[in-house]
Hints:
It is a multi-pass membrane protein. One of its GO terms (cellular component) is cell division site. It is a single chain. This protein has 18 helices and three strands. By secondary structure, the protein is mainly alpha-helical. It has a domain at 2-182 and 279-284 and 338-413. α6 packs antiparallel against α17 (353-377) and α14 crosses α16.
Amino acid sequence: xxxxxxxxxxxxxxxxxxxxxxxxxxxxxxxxxxxxxxxxxxxxxxxxxxxxxxxxxxxxxxxxxxxxxxxxxxxxxxxxxxxxxxxxxxxxxxxxxxxxxxxxxxxxxxxxxxxxxxxxxxxxxxxxxxxxxxxxxxxxxxxxxxxxxxxxxxxxxxxxxxxxxxxxxxxxxxxxxxxxxxxxxxxxxxxxxxxxxxxxxxxxxxxxxxxxxxxxxxxxxxxxxxxxxxxxxxxxxxxxxxxxxxxxxxxxxxxxxxxxxxxxxxxxxxxxxxxxxxxxxxxxxxxxxxxxxxxxxxxxxxxxxxxxxxxxxxxxxxxxxxxxxxxxxxxxxxxxxxxxxxxxxxxxxxxxxxxxxxxxxxxxxxxxxxxxxxxxxxxxxxxxxxxxxxxxxxxxxxxxxxxxxxxxxxxxxxxxxxx
Length: 419
């Protein structure tokens, strides 16, 4: 009896209410995105919105079961969760169903399981377990290498599908390492790498290399009396040259045409609103046409006539913008920001380093999905095809995000103990 009272009094109900609100908003917008006048009922189980209702109910049950488990269970079994997801990621490469060019789903009857979604919470758990070990320090090279391998193994398997969008999600976990003491120099390196990537795509690689060499020469002149700084600049120059050639090779020889096209559209190299830029153009039209208050529920013309592809999944935010307008977008974005802020607050109040590190893993994954998904629908980021948490259609994504979030809620409910 006391355990049950503790469960309901210690759990963070602000997060649960926000979670349920986002799920309900997603359900109604999925209904609007794929609305069929011949099947008008929102609980018609033959439609995607009817199936999403089942996914939501089952997700809530999964969340409740997680809250009933012991908090120590997730720390103890994190290697097993990680191992199972790796096996599933290998299995999907053998028996998986190819949808849209990605072999990312395992067919189970009429349902399709996407292992890459579940790898997110499993990787967060194992990373938290490793980094919370008593002798581990993020500042040590050995620790950084092992942490990188924990993140890169599922990333590499997902890239083989190939599902670049889901693979990129794991890069957000570097934010966890920063919280635990990783040097800020790595953040500078990341920023410079992004800049070099953009410049290499936009301009000739040799022109970029000449620019880098001139900058390095200027810095060496300015720091000519500091041998350590000259060494750092020299290493940076070598890294930059190798990176530029790598980007040029990957862009021209590894990326698929549709992936290159998406980058070209965002960077302004190509202006083709009726061709390769069609999806993005229609997405922006749908969101912009909603105005301040939107066109009204089930009244979106871009939505109703299927101008925006994948509108119930990757582009669900277009439905919010068109039918609920700026006000609706403001509410949805506000809910996400509140959720992320609340997760960070929860992470910081943990007495256990495992719980704190896992909390930042949850925040990193959710922030990446939120920022990238909305960013790609309004043209700020290339379209990479990842769902908007709790809003997009799909059982695997909803269940995985639910597990990710509710494990944190369980760990938080036990924060007065040691996990």
